[in-house]
Structure formats: C-alpha cells, structure tokens
Amino acid sequence: MTKPEQGPVEPEPDRLADAVTQLTAELAALRRDAARRHLLDLAGGVLVAQHSLTPGEAADHLARLAETTGVSTEDLAADIVNGATGTPGIAAGPAPGTDTGPRSVDGAARPEYDEAGTADRRARLVEAGAEAAAQTGGTVDEIAATLLKGGMRPLGARALWLFRRTETDCLQLAGQAGANPLEASHWRWVPPTGGSTLHRVLGEGTPLWLPDGTVSAEALPGPAPDSARAVLPLRQRGVVTGLALVDWPGPAALDEPVRRALTGLAAPAARILDAGPPGTAEPGALTPLLDLLTHPAMALRADPESGTLHVEHLNRPALDSVRHVHGPAGRQLAQVFPAMHADLARLAAAARESAAPQRAARVPVRHRAGDPDPLHDVRVLPVGPDRTVVLWHGATDPGLSLSRVLGRLENLAAFEDDLITGESRWSEQAYRIFGLEPGTSPVPLRRLAPQLHREDTGKLDELLTELTQRREGGHIVVRAVREDGGLRHLRIAAEPLLTGGVLTGITGVYQDVSAQHHTEIALSATFDRLTAAQTQAALRQQLVLQLQQAIVPEVPELQRLPGLQVAARYRPAAEEYRVGGDWYDVLPLPDGRVLVVTGDIAGHGIDSVTGMVALRNALRGLAFTGHTPGRLMAWLNEVTLHTHGRPTATAVCGLYDPSDHTLRWASAGHLPPVLLREGAAELLEPPRSILLGAVPDVAYEETVTRLEPGDTLMLYTDGLVESRRTGIDQGLDRLRRAVERLEPADLDEQADALLAAVTGDTDDDTSLVVVRVS
Predict the structure, then answer these.
(1) % of the chain exceeding 90 in pLDDT
(2) Lowest-pLDDT range, 95-99, 116-120, 433-437?
C-alpha cells in the first residue's frame, strides 16, 4: 500500500489554461448577446406601447422593418428607442400592413440616415453594451472602457472618469478608462472643498462644458490645463449620485451633437456606479515604473485573510502575453497564469517571508508540448508585506541562458589571449586547475606545452594549427602536470577572434575533467559485476511477477455463482519491478454461501508476494469452517502475526447468502465497498477496525447489508483511488461519481469501463471485484 503525499491540489496546467481561455471567450460572447437582447427588448416594448402589439408581433414587425429598410436589426432598434425617448432618429415605424419605408419621428418617409442619427444610434448601442457588462459582473473600469471605446473615442475623447458621491459629499473615483494608473491614484478622492468645479456641478446638477479647458488655476483630471473637458451629473431616481468627467487631448469644439451624445451616455454611466467596488488601486509610483520596462512585469497583491494572490497591474509586454484573458487586472493569479500560478505563488511567498528577491530560470520547470509558453528568467521582488513584483522574459535570452549553462559546469575556467599585445587573461578558476597561485602571470595557450604531459603536446599543436591557420575552433582533452606533481585531465575548447579578417586573439575555456576520467575507470572496472547483479535482479523480479500473475490473473473469466454474477480484474503496477501484494478471491462454499475477498499487503517485492500467498491460502482454508467473517478475520490476523517477515495488510471479507440476499462482511482497515443501486452509488462505511498483523487478539465487528436484485457491489484496493496530489477522500468521491456514470452493460464491460475511468497516480497495483445480484 502507498500513502498519498498531502499538499495543495494543483490543477492540471493544460486543462486549466484551456478552461480560462474558453470561459473568457464565452463571457465576451455572453456580453455581446446580452447587449443585443437588451436593445431589442427596449425596442420591442416601444412597438408594443405604440401599436398595441403582442411581444411576438413586435419582434416580427421589427424584423420585417429592418429587412425593408436595409438597416441591421440592432441599428433599427437603437433608432426606435431614441425616437421614443425624444432623441432624433427613426421612430417606431409604421403599423403592420402599412408602408414600411424609413420614417422620422413625425412619420415622414426618410430615404437615408444623417450623421447625427448615426451618432445617436452608436450611443444607444454603447449604452446597451455597458448595461450588458454590468449584468454579467463587469467591474466599473471594464464598463467605463466600454463607454469610452464605443461612444466617446469616436468623438475624440481621451479618457472617462466616473466619480461616486459619498455620504459626506466626497467624490470617490469609482472607475476610469483611458488614464494611466498614476493619474488615477492622484484623483482617487476629491474632498468637498468650497467652490470647486466638480462640487459645483454636483450641487447644481447641470452639465459643465469646457471646450478650452479650465478657466481658472483649479486643477481637473486631464492631460493639460487647456484640454477640453465635459463634467456631467449622474442621476439615479432624480438624485445626483456622482459625476462623469470626459477629457480630450487638447481643446475641442463641444458642439450640440457631441453634447447630446455625451448626455445620452450619462444615463448608463449613472446606473453602473453600483456595479462593483472602485476599480482603481493604490499603485503609487510602482505601476508607472513597471510601465517603463521593456520586458514583462506585473504587481501581485496577497489577500490578507486567504493569502490568495491577485494581479494588481500588468505592463504592456505582460498584457500582450495574456491576451487570452479578458480584463486580467484584478483577477486571481490562477485565472491569469493557470499553468504557472503554483510556482509563482511559492516564489512570492518566499520573497515576502525572507524579504529578499527570489529567482527561477524558468516557470514552470517542466514544459510539455501544447502547454503555454513558460516564463524565463523569473525574478520576484518583495515590495511590502502583501505585495510582490514579478519580472520575466517571454523568450529565452541566449546570454542569460549561456551564463546558466556555464554555471552548471564544474571546474570550468575561461581564458583569452590577445595576440596583438601579447597579454593573456584567466578567470579565477584557471589558477586552481593548474595549481598556480592567484596573481601568477597567465600562460598563453601557444606556450602551454611545458604544462602538459609530453605525450599530449601533439594534441595542443593540432589545436593551435586549427585556430591560427584554418581559423576554426576546436577542442582537445590532455593531461596537465602541476608543480606539486599532480596530474589533471583537462579539456580545452577554443575559438579564434578575428578583426577585419585578421587573427587578433584566442578565447576559450579550460575544464578539469579528472573526476569524470576517474569515474569512467571505476565504472569500467565494475561493469561486469554490475551486469551480473542486474541480470540476477531481473530474473528475481520476473519470477516474482510470474508467481503473482499465476495466483492473481489479470483478466479472469466471468464467473456465475449461486445468485451472483462476478467479474474481477487485476492491474499490475506501472513498473514491473514494483510487484505488490494485492489479491482477491471469489469462492463458493459447501453450505451455499459465497466468499468474496479483496486484500492488500503493505510494500512491494518478493516479501509482499509471499505474504499475499500465505494469507490468501489461509483464508481459503479457514472459510470452509463455516464461521462468520468477523471470526475469519480474527483468525487471519493471528496468521499474519506468525507469517515470515511480520507483514501488515488490509482486507475486506464478505459471505453472501443467496437464500436471503444478505452480505455479512467485516473489514480490517480496508477501503469501503461501493454499492450501485438504481443508478445511485453509495460508499458502505465499515466499522472502525485495525489492519491485519498489527496487534494480537483483535475482535472484528461485522456488518450485514441486504442486496436487492440488480444491485452491483464493487470491492477494490487502494491503487484504484490513491493520488500523490489529493487525499483519499477526494479519490473515493471520484470513484463514487465514476460508478454512477457507468452505462448499463454486462459485468465485464462495466469492470473494464471503471478501470479505464478511474486510476490513481501512485504506480501501485490494483484489484477490483464486481458482484451483481441476479
């Protein structure tokens, strides 16, 4: 038996990444559909009121009107709603059965739409999009971005600011779009100072239009003093609940069409103030600093209670790497980086606890084909008790990768010979390799022969010829003789340095490979003995596996017993050398009852197999005494205590009586059987009992379960449900749900389907017995 390692459950990276991408796309589609339905419902209501139609007739009339006018249904619906609210555009259109040409508010035919009508229609579509985003849980920042992009950017606007009015008449920035985080942090709160422009609009409830910017020295949100601004009161049920401020890059002519469009967009802006908490954080100078970086960076904040990491800010390169996630700022890290969040969370926790930067060459370390691209050269910096900054590269940096590769090579030293000046440079490790004191004049490669074994100087000459005459790199392995008499095996790899086609230097590395050389000699000396030992071990394990498979066949034939159908399966461990002690038995007894058993000896190898054989055969013989399962388990416990090697084991033993359809059973620390009845699966919890071979003189309690015709009972060992990543309870629940999903079929098919659907990941062997009452 194996025990699962306890720890946090980590989602499978590829499945979670696909799920996040799919859900993000579904959310965007849902918002588009909700916006369309919202607008069509409003237009349908207008038609119902004006023409006394039913909702179905109104929808048909709208479709016919759109087809006749050649205008999309959404655009026509926007014109109808605008006409009903007093905004210029197409009104509800003629009643069914009359001329269906385009109509203005007064009913006169209009062959085409003017520019103002197009702007009004666009404003209505944007309003519907904002309403849909609010209904689907969008943040105020996301909804503000919808209003800005669809309705205000076409008017030349740069940014939209939404302020919520507090009980003390403060203005709190609820959300914004188009401004940078540093601006947002500056305008997060506006106190009720006397005579301020914003609070004057708040009190008067009248829009303020500033085409040439601020008229006084008072500062307002915007890129420059002379930038145009529009300050609009936001009303809910007749009460001014906040302000919308729109700014432009510079002066702008805020004419009547622009004012009408902005006033129309103020209505949905007022309704979204309660869509969620303010979307702005407190970035200070951190986020502008991250925005200046040319490689990806993000700020993370840990929840003070749960410790869950949330993405606070991503700079532009980081946003480009998570294009599949809609609105990543503010989301949990696991939603934005599902394949990497476990490693990033570990690094962030270590950085906060140690108050020191953490590094990782790649996250995640293991990368499989089809997974998202990993993060390279990751650095995690603590910037407070609950905040960290993550820096990384999106692609492998060759320079950084080379430095890591060289750092992994032991006893490696760099050298460079300048052939123009005659100077040579060694790294510190070179002095140790040649046994020289640091500060000693480095020996150029062309004069290294006196330092080598005389039989190896020819190799050095060949390398110098390649470097100086052929102008090609090369490498050799030679023996270096040190002044202390020591002999070192040395690998030399070198490249020529060319300037304007002229050889000006030689650069390369020295690597002491003496340890590798001695290891090769030692391996050669012991190879024959290791080969013999491996052969003996392979024979031993093969015999054990054959013995186990002979006792517990992998796929036994379906058995028909008194009142029962039985199918059993045995699945050996993934690695053949880890043969285990699983067993099962189904045995008809002389008194008409049927013995059903599964068991598992702890451990693997020949001791487990021999222990399994002893217990299985002992229980077979004891079953013929006619005693109850509790008594049989007590005797089997004593047998276990006196078995060679003192093994321990779990087992469940049942006696089925076909005369009254009862199963009397007892368990010794084994996993609960699963009963499938009329499509519902239930875990049969046994009484608390100790495993076999632990202590002497144990009394095992019995349980009686009545089985109905058609019931299916499943007994199994822990290899079916145990996992290194989850606890045993999760594995049992996964098994129960898999049993309920089994299609009606014969017993063999259901046994095979269950083994295919449920499997542990501990590489343990598995036994499964499936019993169906006839």
Answers:
(1) 26
(2) 95-99
One-letter-per-residue 3-state SS of 420-483:
CCCCEEECHHHHHHHCCCCCCCCCCHHHCHHHECHHHHHHHHHHHHHHHCCCCCEEEEEEEECC
Tokens of 635: 């005797």
pLDDT in tens, 208-220: 999 998 766 678 8
Tell me the per-residue pLDDT of 482-523, one tens digit each, with 9 for 90 and over. 887 778 888 899 998 888 778 889 988 898 887 776 666 656
Distance CA 678, CA 98 (A): 62
Crossing angle of the two packed helices 728-740 and 747-757, in degrees rounded to 10: 140
Residue 705, SS3 per DSSP: strand
pLDDT tier at 560, thresholds 50, 70, 90: low
State the distance between the two ends of the chain, measured CA to CA, in whole angstroms: 33
Q: Can you say whether the dihedral through the CA atoms of 537, 539, 540, 546 is positive or negative?
A: positive
Distances (CA, A) of 307 to 12, 338, 346, 350, 352: 21, 17, 11, 13, 12
CB contact at 8 A, 147 and 245: no
In Å, what is the CA distance from 633 to each residue of 473, 614, 616, 652? 75, 14, 12, 9
In degrees, rounded to 5, the angle at the alpha carbon of residue 300 between the alpha carbons of residues 298 and 304 is: 175
Phi and psi, residue 396, nearest 5°: -65, 125
Burial-class residue 346 by CB neighbours within 10 Å (0-12, 13-18, 19+).
middle
187 Cβ contact partners less than 8 Å away, ≥ 6 residues apart: 161, 173, 221
Q: Which residue has the tokens 């119902």?
A: 48
Q: What is the pLDDT of residue 681?
A: 95
Place of tokens 């060679």: 644
Q: Residue 560 is encoded by which pair of tokens?
A: 């028909």
Category of 396 on φ-ψ map: left (φ > 0), alpha (ψ -120 to 50) or beta: beta
The confidence score (pLDDT) of residue 623 equals 92
Q: Which helix H or strand E contains 703, and what residues bound it?
A: strand 703-706
Could you give the CA distance from residue 341 to residue 331 in angstroms, rounded to a whole number? 12
List, in order, residues 6 or more apart from 616 with CB less than 8 Å away: 551, 583, 585, 597, 599
Q: Are 282 and 185 in contact (CB under 8 A)?
A: yes
Lowest average pLDDT, out of 243-247, 433-437, 549-553, 563-567, goes to 549-553
State which amino acid sits at residue 713: L
**What is the pairing mode between strands 502-512 and 487-499?**
antiparallel
Q: Reduced to 3 states, what is the DSSP secondary structure of residue 158?
A: coil
What dihedral do alpha carbons 616, 621, 627, 631 form, nearest 10°? Answer: -40
Q: How far is CA 452 from CA 136, 435, 437, 478, 767, in A?
A: 77, 13, 18, 7, 65
Is residue 560 within 8 A of residue 530, CB to CB? The reply is no
State the Cα angle at 206 between 135 and 255, rounded to 5°.
90
Distance between CA atoms of residues 623 and 629, nearest Å: 8
Closest-CA residue to 177 (of 202, 151, 211): 151
**CA pair distance 132, 134, nearest whole angstrom:** 5
Whole-angstrom Cα distance, residue 370 to residue 366?
A: 12
Is pLDDT above 80 for 22?
no
